Amino acid sequence: MQREQNIGNYFDQAFNALEPWARVNNVMIDNMQKAIQFQLEAMQRYSHLGTEQLKVANGSRDIKDAQQYGDFISSWVDQVMSDFRTMSDLGMEFRDEMSQAFSEAGSQVAHQVEDLSNHINEASKQVVDEALDKASEVAESEEEVAKETMDKTTSAASKSAESGKSGASRSAESTSSRQGKSRT
């Protein structure tokens, strides 16, 4: 059960890690769609303007037609300049959206790194705590073994001392009895 929950958490973290980059990709795709749509519309306008220009140029017969042709060229130049401004605005909008998307991605990545660092710290603390608990248990059991060994050694030494005293008193008795027999 815990393993399934961990796997689910890993998938959630992976999804969250990729989310900011998906936003960056969406911004790029949206901008490309806008730019392509604008370029298609501009090509239609220029195509229409080109055919109109040819019609006007073909029908020019006097000064009034030439003036109309000049006005047409002027409007064509105005349209080109307007299109350049629009493309520039699209570029600026794209730059701003990408900047915002990268900023969000960066802050989200920083947040994820912080979360990961916290998880690692918690896991490390847990491992250290468990190791300290085990070391404490081992130290306590070694202390108990040392105490038991000390008690056994002390009791053996006491018994040895008692047997040494009784052996010495027997030896003293036997020496005194031998001395007593030898005097007789």
UniProtKB/TrEMBL annotation:
Bias-annotated ranges (Low complexity): 155-178
Pfam families associated with the record: Phasin_2
Start and end residues of each Phasin domain: 13-104
Region annotation (Disordered) ranges: 129-184
Domain of life assignment: Bacteria
Name of the protein: Phasin family protein
UniProt organism field: Modicisalibacter xianhensis
Taxonomic placement: Bacteria, Pseudomonadati, Pseudomonadota, Gammaproteobacteria, Oceanospirillales
